[in-house]
Amino acid sequence: MIFIIIPALAFLSFLLGKYIFKRWFNHLSLFTFIWAGMILLYELRLLPYKEIVTATWLFIIATFLSLILGTLTYLSIKKLFPFQESTDEKKNFEFYKIFSDDSKVVRYSLFLFSFISIAGAIQHWMVLLDMFGSIPKVFLNALTIYRMNTEEGGIKGQVPFVSNFGYVAVFWGAVYTAYKGKFTFLSILPFIGIIIKETSTIGRAGILLGLFEFIFVFLLFRHCLTINDKNRFKFSKPNATISITFLLALLIFAASVVKISRVSFEQYQGASKTLRELEGNIILSPSVYLYLSAHLGVLNEFVKRQDERNLFAQNSLLPLYNFLDRLNIVERPNQYQKGYFIPMWVNTGTFIRELFADFNVFGLLLFPYLLGLLMTYLWFRLVRKGSLYILVILSYLYIIIGFSFLVMITRTSYWIISLTLNLLSVFIIAQIVKGKQSKKSEVSLGSVST
Helix and strand tally (H, E) in the chain? Predict the structure, then answer.
Protein backbone atom coordinates (compact mmCIF):
# COMPACT_ATOMS: atom_id res chain seq x y z
CA MET A 1 0.00 0.00 0.00
CA ILE A 2 2.84 2.39 0.84
CA PHE A 3 4.17 2.04 -2.72
CA ILE A 4 0.87 3.42 -4.02
CA ILE A 5 0.17 6.15 -1.45
CA ILE A 6 3.64 7.76 -1.42
CA PRO A 7 4.01 8.09 -5.25
CA ALA A 8 0.42 9.42 -5.49
CA LEU A 9 1.02 12.07 -2.82
CA ALA A 10 4.39 12.93 -4.35
CA PHE A 11 2.78 13.45 -7.74
CA LEU A 12 0.21 15.84 -6.23
CA SER A 13 3.00 17.72 -4.48
CA PHE A 14 4.96 18.04 -7.72
CA LEU A 15 1.87 19.44 -9.43
CA LEU A 16 1.33 21.94 -6.61
CA GLY A 17 4.93 23.13 -6.85
CA LYS A 18 4.68 23.45 -10.63
CA TYR A 19 1.45 25.43 -10.32
CA ILE A 20 2.89 27.86 -7.76
CA PHE A 21 6.35 28.43 -9.22
CA LYS A 22 5.72 27.67 -12.91
CA ARG A 23 8.79 25.40 -12.83
CA TRP A 24 9.27 21.77 -11.84
CA PHE A 25 12.28 22.76 -9.78
CA ASN A 26 11.22 24.40 -6.51
CA HIS A 27 11.61 23.73 -2.81
CA LEU A 28 8.33 21.79 -2.54
CA SER A 29 9.28 19.44 -5.36
CA LEU A 30 12.80 19.06 -3.97
CA PHE A 31 11.57 18.17 -0.48
CA THR A 32 9.02 15.76 -1.94
CA PHE A 33 11.59 14.05 -4.18
CA ILE A 34 14.09 13.58 -1.34
CA TRP A 35 11.66 12.36 1.29
CA ALA A 36 9.47 10.22 -0.96
CA GLY A 37 12.63 8.61 -2.34
CA MET A 38 14.01 7.90 1.13
CA ILE A 39 10.72 6.48 2.40
CA LEU A 40 10.35 4.17 -0.62
CA LEU A 41 13.95 2.97 -0.30
CA TYR A 42 13.44 2.33 3.39
CA GLU A 43 10.23 0.40 2.74
CA LEU A 44 12.03 -1.85 0.25
CA ARG A 45 13.58 -3.42 3.37
CA LEU A 46 16.75 -4.57 1.64
CA LEU A 47 18.09 -4.39 5.18
CA PRO A 48 16.02 -5.59 8.16
CA TYR A 49 14.67 -2.16 9.05
CA LYS A 50 11.95 -1.83 11.68
CA GLU A 51 8.38 -0.75 11.03
CA ILE A 52 7.85 3.03 11.02
CA VAL A 53 5.67 3.93 14.01
CA THR A 54 2.66 6.23 13.82
CA ALA A 55 4.39 9.05 15.72
CA THR A 56 7.20 9.13 13.14
CA TRP A 57 4.67 9.42 10.33
CA LEU A 58 3.01 12.29 12.19
CA PHE A 59 6.35 14.07 12.58
CA ILE A 60 7.03 13.79 8.83
CA ILE A 61 3.51 14.89 7.86
CA ALA A 62 3.59 17.87 10.26
CA THR A 63 6.93 19.03 8.86
CA PHE A 64 5.79 18.79 5.24
CA LEU A 65 2.43 20.46 5.85
CA SER A 66 4.18 23.31 7.69
CA LEU A 67 6.47 23.81 4.71
CA ILE A 68 3.46 23.94 2.36
CA LEU A 69 1.55 26.27 4.70
CA GLY A 70 4.48 28.69 4.84
CA THR A 71 4.61 28.71 1.04
CA LEU A 72 0.87 29.34 0.70
CA THR A 73 1.01 32.09 3.34
CA TYR A 74 3.33 34.19 1.20
CA LEU A 75 1.16 33.61 -1.87
CA SER A 76 -1.87 34.83 0.09
CA ILE A 77 -0.01 37.95 1.20
CA LYS A 78 1.20 38.51 -2.37
CA LYS A 79 -2.36 38.25 -3.65
CA LEU A 80 -3.74 40.63 -1.03
CA PHE A 81 -0.97 43.17 -1.59
CA PRO A 82 0.08 42.85 -5.25
CA PHE A 83 3.42 44.32 -6.25
CA GLN A 84 3.56 46.46 -9.34
CA GLU A 85 6.95 46.13 -11.01
CA SER A 86 8.42 49.39 -12.25
CA THR A 87 10.25 49.76 -15.55
CA ASP A 88 13.33 51.09 -13.77
CA GLU A 89 13.57 48.02 -11.57
CA LYS A 90 13.61 45.72 -14.56
CA LYS A 91 16.40 47.75 -16.12
CA ASN A 92 18.41 47.31 -12.91
CA PHE A 93 18.32 43.52 -13.09
CA GLU A 94 21.55 42.86 -11.19
CA PHE A 95 22.66 39.60 -12.81
CA TYR A 96 23.69 41.39 -16.00
CA LYS A 97 25.88 43.96 -14.24
CA ILE A 98 28.35 41.45 -12.89
CA PHE A 99 29.25 40.35 -16.45
CA SER A 100 29.51 43.86 -17.90
CA ASP A 101 33.32 43.54 -18.29
CA ASP A 102 33.04 40.41 -20.45
CA SER A 103 33.11 38.23 -17.28
CA LYS A 104 36.78 39.01 -16.55
CA VAL A 105 36.35 39.78 -12.85
CA VAL A 106 34.16 36.70 -12.36
CA ARG A 107 36.68 34.45 -14.13
CA TYR A 108 39.70 35.77 -12.25
CA SER A 109 37.85 35.55 -8.93
CA LEU A 110 36.82 31.99 -9.69
CA PHE A 111 40.47 31.06 -10.28
CA LEU A 112 41.56 32.86 -7.11
CA PHE A 113 38.98 31.21 -4.84
CA SER A 114 39.68 27.78 -6.35
CA PHE A 115 43.42 28.03 -5.77
CA ILE A 116 42.97 29.30 -2.21
CA SER A 117 40.79 26.25 -1.58
CA ILE A 118 43.34 23.91 -3.17
CA ALA A 119 46.18 25.47 -1.15
CA GLY A 120 44.19 24.98 2.07
CA ALA A 121 43.43 21.37 1.19
CA ILE A 122 47.08 20.63 0.37
CA GLN A 123 48.10 22.12 3.75
CA HIS A 124 45.71 19.67 5.43
CA TRP A 125 47.38 16.81 3.59
CA MET A 126 50.87 18.03 4.50
CA VAL A 127 49.95 17.83 8.19
CA LEU A 128 48.62 14.29 7.71
CA LEU A 129 51.73 13.21 5.82
CA ASP A 130 53.87 14.63 8.59
CA MET A 131 51.84 12.59 11.12
CA PHE A 132 51.61 9.27 9.27
CA GLY A 133 54.47 9.36 6.76
CA SER A 134 52.80 8.48 3.45
CA ILE A 135 49.48 8.61 1.57
CA PRO A 136 48.79 4.85 1.96
CA LYS A 137 49.34 5.13 5.73
CA VAL A 138 46.94 8.07 5.86
CA PHE A 139 44.20 5.93 4.36
CA LEU A 140 45.12 3.00 6.63
CA ASN A 141 44.50 5.32 9.58
CA ALA A 142 41.28 6.69 8.07
CA LEU A 143 39.09 5.80 11.06
CA THR A 144 41.53 7.48 13.45
CA ILE A 145 41.50 10.65 11.32
CA TYR A 146 37.71 10.54 11.06
CA ARG A 147 37.34 10.33 14.85
CA MET A 148 39.82 13.16 15.37
CA ASN A 149 37.76 15.39 13.08
CA THR A 150 34.35 14.45 14.47
CA GLU A 151 35.04 13.89 18.17
CA GLU A 152 38.04 16.15 18.85
CA GLY A 153 37.02 19.04 16.61
CA GLY A 154 39.90 18.75 14.13
CA ILE A 155 43.59 17.97 13.77
CA LYS A 156 46.18 20.27 15.29
CA GLY A 157 48.32 22.08 12.76
CA GLN A 158 45.71 22.18 10.00
CA VAL A 159 44.72 25.72 9.06
CA PRO A 160 40.93 25.98 9.55
CA PHE A 161 38.34 27.56 7.27
CA VAL A 162 40.63 28.23 4.26
CA SER A 163 39.23 25.31 2.30
CA ASN A 164 35.75 26.86 2.61
CA PHE A 165 36.75 29.16 -0.25
CA GLY A 166 36.07 26.10 -2.42
CA TYR A 167 32.34 26.69 -1.91
CA VAL A 168 32.77 30.31 -2.94
CA ALA A 169 34.44 29.05 -6.11
CA VAL A 170 31.57 26.58 -6.64
CA PHE A 171 29.04 29.43 -6.40
CA TRP A 172 30.83 31.53 -9.04
CA GLY A 173 31.49 28.44 -11.14
CA ALA A 174 27.75 27.70 -11.25
CA VAL A 175 26.93 31.34 -12.04
CA TYR A 176 29.54 31.50 -14.80
CA THR A 177 28.45 28.17 -16.31
CA ALA A 178 24.79 29.22 -16.36
CA TYR A 179 25.61 32.57 -17.96
CA LYS A 180 27.89 31.12 -20.64
CA GLY A 181 25.47 28.34 -21.48
CA LYS A 182 28.09 25.59 -21.42
CA PHE A 183 30.31 23.64 -19.08
CA THR A 184 34.02 24.47 -19.15
CA PHE A 185 37.11 23.74 -17.10
CA LEU A 186 35.99 26.55 -14.77
CA SER A 187 32.88 24.48 -13.96
CA ILE A 188 35.05 21.62 -12.66
CA LEU A 189 37.97 23.53 -11.09
CA PRO A 190 36.15 24.55 -7.85
CA PHE A 191 35.52 20.91 -6.95
CA ILE A 192 39.22 19.97 -6.96
CA GLY A 193 39.98 21.73 -3.68
CA ILE A 194 36.82 20.34 -2.06
CA ILE A 195 37.66 16.78 -3.09
CA ILE A 196 41.26 17.04 -1.89
CA LYS A 197 40.11 18.49 1.43
CA GLU A 198 37.35 15.93 2.00
CA THR A 199 39.69 13.02 1.34
CA SER A 200 42.00 14.50 4.00
CA THR A 201 39.16 14.56 6.57
CA ILE A 202 37.79 11.18 5.43
CA GLY A 203 34.40 12.84 4.93
CA ARG A 204 31.76 12.92 2.22
CA ALA A 205 29.27 15.55 3.40
CA GLY A 206 31.45 18.38 2.07
CA ILE A 207 31.43 16.85 -1.42
CA LEU A 208 27.64 16.55 -1.27
CA LEU A 209 27.39 20.18 -0.12
CA GLY A 210 29.47 21.34 -3.10
CA LEU A 211 27.35 19.30 -5.51
CA PHE A 212 24.08 20.60 -4.06
CA GLU A 213 25.37 24.18 -4.12
CA PHE A 214 26.38 23.97 -7.77
CA ILE A 215 23.06 22.41 -8.84
CA PHE A 216 20.86 24.84 -6.92
CA VAL A 217 22.78 27.99 -7.88
CA PHE A 218 22.90 26.88 -11.51
CA LEU A 219 19.18 26.11 -11.73
CA LEU A 220 18.09 29.28 -9.93
CA PHE A 221 20.39 31.50 -11.97
CA ARG A 222 19.33 29.89 -15.26
CA HIS A 223 15.68 30.24 -14.31
CA CYS A 224 16.07 33.99 -13.80
CA LEU A 225 18.05 34.48 -17.00
CA THR A 226 15.55 32.48 -19.04
CA ILE A 227 12.61 34.53 -17.78
CA ASN A 228 14.33 37.85 -18.50
CA ASP A 229 15.87 36.90 -21.85
CA LYS A 230 14.19 33.78 -23.24
CA ASN A 231 16.13 33.62 -26.50
CA ARG A 232 19.63 34.29 -25.26
CA PHE A 233 20.33 31.57 -22.70
CA LYS A 234 20.12 28.25 -24.49
CA PHE A 235 22.28 25.39 -23.28
CA SER A 236 24.25 22.92 -25.38
CA LYS A 237 22.80 19.49 -24.54
CA PRO A 238 25.84 17.44 -25.71
CA ASN A 239 28.18 19.68 -23.71
CA ALA A 240 25.92 19.41 -20.66
CA THR A 241 25.63 15.62 -20.90
CA ILE A 242 29.38 15.02 -21.22
CA SER A 243 30.33 17.55 -18.54
CA ILE A 244 27.73 16.42 -15.99
CA THR A 245 28.74 12.79 -16.52
CA PHE A 246 32.40 13.67 -15.96
CA LEU A 247 31.64 15.76 -12.88
CA LEU A 248 29.45 13.09 -11.30
CA ALA A 249 32.05 10.41 -12.06
CA LEU A 250 34.71 12.54 -10.39
CA LEU A 251 32.59 13.13 -7.29
CA ILE A 252 31.46 9.50 -7.04
CA PHE A 253 35.07 8.34 -7.36
CA ALA A 254 36.17 10.67 -4.55
CA ALA A 255 33.29 9.59 -2.32
CA SER A 256 34.05 5.94 -3.07
CA VAL A 257 37.70 6.39 -2.07
CA VAL A 258 36.54 7.80 1.25
CA LYS A 259 34.03 4.99 1.66
CA ILE A 260 36.64 2.29 1.01
CA SER A 261 39.01 3.96 3.47
CA ARG A 262 36.43 3.99 6.26
CA VAL A 263 34.94 0.55 5.60
CA SER A 264 37.23 -2.12 4.18
CA PHE A 265 34.53 -4.76 3.82
CA GLU A 266 30.78 -4.42 3.67
CA GLN A 267 28.59 -7.18 5.03
CA TYR A 268 25.36 -6.34 6.77
CA GLN A 269 23.62 -8.97 8.86
CA GLY A 270 20.11 -9.65 7.64
CA ALA A 271 20.67 -8.04 4.22
CA SER A 272 18.44 -9.26 1.42
CA LYS A 273 19.78 -11.35 -1.43
CA THR A 274 19.52 -8.35 -3.78
CA LEU A 275 21.66 -6.23 -1.48
CA ARG A 276 24.23 -8.99 -0.88
CA GLU A 277 24.81 -9.20 -4.63
CA LEU A 278 25.98 -5.58 -4.56
CA GLU A 279 28.75 -6.20 -2.01
CA GLY A 280 32.05 -4.96 -3.40
CA ASN A 281 30.42 -2.70 -5.98
CA ILE A 282 32.29 0.61 -5.80
CA ILE A 283 29.26 2.79 -6.68
CA LEU A 284 26.04 0.87 -5.95
CA SER A 285 26.84 -0.94 -2.72
CA PRO A 286 25.10 -1.78 0.56
CA SER A 287 26.64 1.32 2.16
CA VAL A 288 25.09 3.53 -0.55
CA TYR A 289 21.66 2.00 0.13
CA LEU A 290 22.29 2.49 3.84
CA TYR A 291 23.35 6.11 3.28
CA LEU A 292 20.16 6.91 1.34
CA SER A 293 17.66 5.17 3.60
CA ALA A 294 18.95 4.50 7.12
CA HIS A 295 18.41 8.01 8.50
CA LEU A 296 14.67 7.41 8.51
CA GLY A 297 15.29 4.38 10.73
CA VAL A 298 17.32 6.52 13.16
CA LEU A 299 14.51 9.10 13.25
CA ASN A 300 12.09 6.26 13.97
CA GLU A 301 14.18 5.00 16.90
CA PHE A 302 14.62 8.53 18.22
CA VAL A 303 10.86 9.15 18.14
CA LYS A 304 10.15 5.86 19.93
CA ARG A 305 12.68 6.45 22.71
CA GLN A 306 12.89 10.25 23.05
CA ASP A 307 15.65 9.83 25.63
CA GLU A 308 18.10 12.46 24.37
CA ARG A 309 18.81 15.58 26.42
CA ASN A 310 20.09 18.56 24.44
CA LEU A 311 20.80 22.21 25.08
CA PHE A 312 18.46 24.72 23.44
CA ALA A 313 19.11 24.72 19.65
CA GLN A 314 22.19 22.56 20.21
CA ASN A 315 21.98 20.99 16.75
CA SER A 316 20.64 23.89 14.71
CA LEU A 317 23.13 26.39 16.15
CA LEU A 318 26.08 24.11 16.89
CA PRO A 319 28.65 26.51 15.31
CA LEU A 320 27.46 29.21 17.74
CA TYR A 321 27.98 26.88 20.70
CA ASN A 322 31.47 26.08 19.40
CA PHE A 323 32.25 29.80 19.21
CA LEU A 324 30.93 30.42 22.74
CA ASP A 325 33.05 27.50 23.96
CA ARG A 326 36.17 29.25 22.67
CA LEU A 327 35.15 32.27 24.75
CA ASN A 328 34.66 29.98 27.80
CA ILE A 329 31.00 31.03 28.05
CA VAL A 330 29.50 27.55 27.60
CA GLU A 331 30.96 24.09 27.19
CA ARG A 332 31.00 22.79 23.62
CA PRO A 333 28.35 20.08 23.04
CA ASN A 334 29.42 16.75 21.63
CA GLN A 335 29.54 17.15 17.85
CA TYR A 336 29.06 13.43 17.36
CA GLN A 337 25.37 12.55 17.59
CA LYS A 338 23.97 9.59 19.46
CA GLY A 339 23.65 6.52 17.27
CA TYR A 340 21.08 3.74 17.12
CA PHE A 341 21.20 0.15 15.89
CA ILE A 342 18.60 -0.21 13.16
CA PRO A 343 20.02 -3.04 13.03
CA MET A 344 23.42 -1.49 12.09
CA TRP A 345 24.86 1.52 13.90
CA VAL A 346 23.89 4.90 12.36
CA ASN A 347 23.92 8.28 14.10
CA THR A 348 22.27 10.70 11.63
CA GLY A 349 18.48 10.87 11.73
CA THR A 350 17.30 13.64 9.36
CA PHE A 351 16.71 17.29 10.23
CA ILE A 352 13.37 16.37 11.81
CA ARG A 353 15.19 14.60 14.63
CA GLU A 354 17.34 17.66 15.30
CA LEU A 355 14.45 20.13 15.10
CA PHE A 356 12.47 18.11 17.62
CA ALA A 357 15.50 17.64 19.89
CA ASP A 358 16.18 21.40 19.79
CA PHE A 359 12.66 22.86 20.00
CA ASN A 360 10.23 19.96 20.55
CA VAL A 361 7.01 19.92 18.44
CA PHE A 362 7.25 23.71 18.19
CA GLY A 363 10.34 23.27 16.00
CA LEU A 364 8.59 20.87 13.61
CA LEU A 365 5.79 23.37 13.07
CA LEU A 366 7.52 26.74 13.11
CA PHE A 367 10.86 26.14 11.35
CA PRO A 368 9.47 24.49 8.16
CA TYR A 369 6.71 27.12 8.10
CA LEU A 370 9.21 30.00 8.22
CA LEU A 371 11.46 28.19 5.77
CA GLY A 372 8.64 27.81 3.24
CA LEU A 373 7.57 31.43 3.75
CA LEU A 374 11.08 32.83 3.35
CA MET A 375 12.04 30.64 0.38
CA THR A 376 8.86 31.55 -1.50
CA TYR A 377 9.41 35.25 -0.85
CA LEU A 378 13.04 35.05 -1.96
CA TRP A 379 12.11 33.04 -5.08
CA PHE A 380 9.79 35.76 -6.42
CA ARG A 381 12.12 38.51 -5.25
CA LEU A 382 15.03 36.85 -7.06
CA VAL A 383 13.10 36.60 -10.32
CA ARG A 384 12.06 40.24 -10.09
CA LYS A 385 15.32 41.80 -8.88
CA GLY A 386 18.06 39.40 -9.97
CA SER A 387 20.09 40.07 -6.82
CA LEU A 388 23.22 37.97 -6.26
CA TYR A 389 22.79 38.38 -2.50
CA ILE A 390 19.35 36.80 -2.72
CA LEU A 391 20.75 34.07 -4.95
CA VAL A 392 23.33 33.17 -2.28
CA ILE A 393 20.82 33.11 0.57
CA LEU A 394 18.14 31.22 -1.38
CA SER A 395 20.57 28.60 -2.67
CA TYR A 396 21.79 27.97 0.89
CA LEU A 397 18.21 27.55 2.08
CA TYR A 398 17.80 25.01 -0.71
CA ILE A 399 20.85 23.24 0.72
CA ILE A 400 18.97 22.87 4.02
CA ILE A 401 16.20 21.10 2.09
CA GLY A 402 18.76 19.04 0.18
CA PHE A 403 20.36 17.79 3.40
CA SER A 404 17.05 17.32 5.24
CA PHE A 405 17.20 13.55 4.74
CA LEU A 406 20.52 13.47 6.60
CA VAL A 407 21.07 16.29 9.12
CA MET A 408 20.26 19.90 9.88
CA ILE A 409 23.11 21.24 7.76
CA THR A 410 23.24 24.49 9.77
CA ARG A 411 24.98 22.44 12.50
CA THR A 412 28.12 22.33 10.34
CA SER A 413 30.66 25.14 10.37
CA TYR A 414 31.22 24.97 6.62
CA TRP A 415 27.57 25.83 5.89
CA ILE A 416 27.59 29.11 7.82
CA ILE A 417 31.20 30.02 6.97
CA SER A 418 30.79 29.42 3.24
CA LEU A 419 27.47 31.33 3.27
CA THR A 420 29.23 34.30 4.86
CA LEU A 421 32.19 34.10 2.47
CA ASN A 422 29.86 33.94 -0.52
CA LEU A 423 27.99 37.07 0.58
CA LEU A 424 31.31 38.88 1.08
CA SER A 425 32.53 37.74 -2.34
CA VAL A 426 29.39 39.14 -3.99
CA PHE A 427 29.98 42.51 -2.33
CA ILE A 428 33.68 42.64 -3.25
CA ILE A 429 33.25 41.49 -6.86
CA ALA A 430 30.31 43.87 -7.38
CA GLN A 431 32.45 46.76 -6.08
CA ILE A 432 35.34 45.82 -8.38
CA VAL A 433 33.05 45.63 -11.42
CA LYS A 434 31.41 48.91 -10.43
CA GLY A 435 34.84 50.54 -10.09
CA LYS A 436 35.86 49.33 -13.53
CA GLN A 437 32.65 50.71 -15.01
CA SER A 438 33.28 54.10 -13.35
CA LYS A 439 36.82 54.29 -14.72
CA LYS A 440 35.57 53.35 -18.16
CA SER A 441 32.94 56.09 -18.00
CA GLU A 442 35.54 58.64 -16.88
CA VAL A 443 37.84 57.68 -19.76
CA SER A 444 34.94 57.96 -22.21
CA LEU A 445 33.97 61.40 -20.88
CA GLY A 446 37.59 62.54 -21.02
CA SER A 447 37.88 61.48 -24.63
CA VAL A 448 34.68 63.34 -25.55
CA SER A 449 35.76 66.55 -23.78
CA THR A 450 39.17 66.43 -25.45
Answer: 19, 2
